C-alpha cells in the first residue's frame, strides 16, 4: 500500500542551522508513528513540513503522493482539513468559547446543524476527558487550566475527523492520569476510526504504548525506525542513552 505521508531525501535549513539533510521516512495509513529525539533537533519542524507550514530546499514531502511544496491555496486548505495538527501550546482562540473553538472547523468545512455540532463537541470533549464538566462548552479558554486548554485543543483537532492527526508533544504539562487518557485517546482514534497519527513526544511510555513504529531523529535524519520492541532492543549507544535518559556530565 502507498504511504499516506512520505518525506523523501528532504533538505531543510534555517540560515546556517541545518535541520535535515537527505532525510527520508514514510508513514502508512492507519498506523501510529512516533517521533523521538533530542530537544531542538527538528521534530516540530518535521510536522510543519508535512502540512506546508514551512518550505524545504530540496527533496519531496508527499501527502497521498502529492507534493506539498507545490500545492496551491485550495490544495493546502484541503490538506489541512485532512491532516490536523495539534500544536505544542494547544492554540485555542481566546475570544471564543470552548464550544466555538471545538466546532470551528465544522463550521468552516461542513454543513452540520447546530444540534449535530453540539453532539460532536460533547463526544470530542468526552474523548479528551473534559466531559465531566457540564459547563465546559460555555467556558472561555482563559478560565481553563493549562492542561484543560491542551485537552480542549485536542478536542478541536479531532472534531472534524481528520485522516491524519499530527500531535506535537500532546502530554507536556499533563498529570499522569491525563497522560494515560491522551494515550488511550490516540489508541481509540486509531482502532475505532482508523486515524493515522504522527506523534512527537518526549514521553517514553506514550511512545512505547501507543505506537506501531517509533522513529528516532539523529544527526539530521531518522536512522532508527522500528517497532517499540525493536527500538528498545537497538544496540546503538545513542538510542540506548536517549531512551533511557542517560546523561553524561561532559555533554554540558
Ligand atoms: N521558523 C523558524 N525560523 C528559524 N529557526 C527555526 C524556526 N523553527 C524552528 N527553528 C529552529 O529549528 C530547530 C528545530 O526546532 P524544532 O522546534 O523542530 O525542535 P524540536 O526537536 O521540536 O525541539 P523540542 O523537543 O525542544 O520541542 C531549532 O534550532 C529551532 O530554533
TrEMBL record:
GO terms for molecular function: ATP binding. Transmembrane segments: none annotated. InterPro entries: AAA+_ATPase, ABC_transporter-like_ATP-bd, ABC_transporter-like_CS, P-loop_NTPase. It comes from the Bacteria. Residues 5-244 form the ABC transporter domain. It holds the Pfam family ABC_tran. Keywords: ATP-binding, Nucleotide-binding, Transport. The keyword Aminoacyl-tRNA synthetase does not apply. PANTHER family: INTERMEMBRANE PHOSPHOLIPID TRANSPORT SYSTEM ATP-BINDING PROTEIN MLAF, PROTEIN TRIGALACTOSYLDIACYLGLYCEROL 3, CHLOROPLASTIC. This is ATP-binding cassette domain-containing protein. It comes from Nannocystis bainbridge. The lineage of its organism: Bacteria, Pseudomonadati, Myxococcota, Polyangia, Nannocystales.
